[in-house]
Amino acid sequence: MKGRKRYFYAVIPLLLVLLSIEAILRSWYPTLPSLDALSGYKKAPGFGASAVSCDFQLESPKTWGAGGILFLGDSITDGFGVIKEDRFTTHLAEAFPDVRSEVLARPGADICMEISMLDQRLFDPVPPSIVVWEVMADDLMGYMLYSYGGKPAAMPQAEPDPLLRWFAQNSYFLNLLWFHLRRHDGGGSGRIVSPQQRSLVLARLRELKEHTDAAHIQLLPYLLEPAGWEYCGPNVLPSQACGWMAIDLGFLAGIFEEAQLPVVDLRGMWKGHPLMVIPREVAPGPGGTGIHPDARGHRVLAEALRPHIQDALDRRQK
Which secondary structure element, helix H or strand E, spans residue 264, and what is its range? Predict the structure, then answer.
């Protein structure tokens, strides 16, 4: 009995210390420590598990593709940082004036959200014939670590272990400890994609291909690097944008290949061009890179996509 009392009295101070640390951290950080780098970013809820998780079933299109081009993607397709007249979607609409075109984009969308958005659109009475799908280097949102504004951030929602995920989501102290450990192990690549996450993405891609093939809808996904890609330094950390994006884009290419869904590989497209990043995103450090192309970058992207869209339209007419 005395031994239990001694144990009890020893635990009480420890609990008080932990509670004090938790209170101090909650007063110090405006949000979970691992998300602090995103605290000033208004679109932060678009990242991580707050987006669609790929754990859903797709609907079948009601009818065959009825004509027209749908541009699908995230903030680049949405034209972040440039006026409408300068966006690549506008240039391509002007290049094919006889073809109806529309834009379906959401800033911060990951690959699962884009599949879900497309699924809802294809279920409309008049689905498009061609889907020009931007697959950006940051579209695989199961990663654990990345960088925003030069500071590392980690999504506790992406932690594959349920117990660790609960602790990292509900305690500032344990979140900080978890964040410290993840920054050091980095999952080998700067982010973690569990086999379950990968299998869900693969299943949805296969299902999407099956449904669109049956409805005579051509998917035209294209792999895209950040506009400032060529300015990444050679020795970057896994948690920095230039580190995890390169790995993730290759990872995405592999998933599309396994799903037998051909992609237009635009990796290396920015090479040899002057810096074509919107001014607010010019990144001076070696570990970060500007994401969004400026007006010149949008025109380069439009020219790169134009022949592939023409080929898709030619196949449509045969």
Answer: strand 264-265
The neighbour count for residue 39, using CB atoms within 10 Å, is 13
Whole-prediction pTM:
0.73
pLDDT in tens, 271-292: 888 889 998 887 665 556 788 9
Nearest alpha carbon to residue 130 among 96, 82, 161, 171: 96
Do residues 205 and 259 touch, judged by C-beta distance below 8 A? yes
Q: Is the CB of residue 171 less than 8 Å from the CB of residue 205?
A: no
Residue that the structure tokens 């117990």 belong to: 163
Contact between 36 and 153 (Cβ < 8 Å): yes
N-terminal to C-terminal alpha carbon distance within the chain: 87
Whole-number Å distance between alpha carbons of 276 and 230: 10
Q: Kindly tell me if the per-residue pLDDT of 79 is higher than 80.
A: yes
Q: Which pLDDT score, from 0 to 100, does residue 109 have? A: 85
pLDDT of residue 44: 33
Collect all residues with Cβ–Cβ distance below 8 Å to 76 and sequence separation of at least 6: 134, 136, 224, 291, 292, 293
Neighbours of 70 (CB within 10 A): 22
* Of 111, 121, 146, the residue nearest 259 (C-alpha): 111
